[in-house]
Write a structure and sequence with these properties.
By secondary structure, the chain is an alpha/beta fold. 37% of the residues lie in helices and 19% in strands. It has two domains: 201 residues, 3-Layer(aba) Sandwich (D-Maltodextrin-Binding Protein, domain 2), CATH 3.40.190.10; 91 residues, D-Maltodextrin-Binding Protein, domain 2 (3-Layer(aba) Sandwich), CATH 3.40.190.10. The strands form two sheets. A five-stranded mixed sheet has the order 2-1-3-10-4, sandwiched between helices.
Length: 310
Amino acid sequence: MKTKLLVLLILLLTALPARADESLTKIRFGILPVLDTLPLQVAAAEGLFHENGLDVELVTFASALERDTALQAGQLDGFFGDLIATYMLIDKGVPMRIASTSYSTRPGQPMFAIVASPERKGVGLDGLKGAKIAISKSTIIEYLLDRILERKTLPRDYFRRVEIKKIPIRLQMLLSNEIDLALLPEPLVSLTRFKGGSMVVTAETLGIPLTVLNLHRRYFEGKAKHYLSFMSAYVEALVLLRKHPEKYRELMAVSCRIPPPLAPDFPIYDYPMPSLPSAQQLDSVQDWMIEHDLLDERIPRDWAVSPVAP
């Protein structure tokens, strides 16, 4: 109980406006309450950004739409998001660069998966041709679905795609058997299994950079001092997470919204050290976006990606 109260106090204090320290560079960084952002939460909670000369305020948004609105209004200095959303924002003139991959699909850590309703529990891919699958179109979800089907050598029309943008509604319809399948992120994949559904296939072997950290272009000017300071704090947080994962379980449960029944045993992921997406990975995403009329043409790497390795 004491640990939980401490975590809640830390989150409350980081959400309150602090007195400005003119010696620190202020960065308002937009995030979503998802697992990929746990290293950022650790860096903030442990004061690692301050130790590296930065005053980083993590601004949590309930949805990507709210985050994107703030970005286009110039209210943020950086943000966490998936590659598709990042490219769409850069294409709209938001002056950001990709600073680092924050999470890539990794074997043994199924961050995204196709899950089946309780009525379809245990049915394999072979028995699901023509099943209704809930997704959000023109997003990382549809991109992952296409890549999963491609890896399994199945046609894109193998499932009947149903547009359900709001994830809570997608989950509710799945659990009430109104839809056969859904492509969901963790911890909702685990929650589906807890509620009587099953996991059909994951995205863990695709080798795709799912999410990235992005910073305003000004932080890459000169010798990119502020960018490197940000990444230094991030690396320190990753090291702490690897050394003492259980220390941050309560922080993960609160900040990443792990459902209470799952919180005690939910795995604390091994997050990758900073790196920039490869040219091939970026081209794959952009080619898919062009195919789906989300981009007119590829955005050059030297415009969208950090000129300095993290």
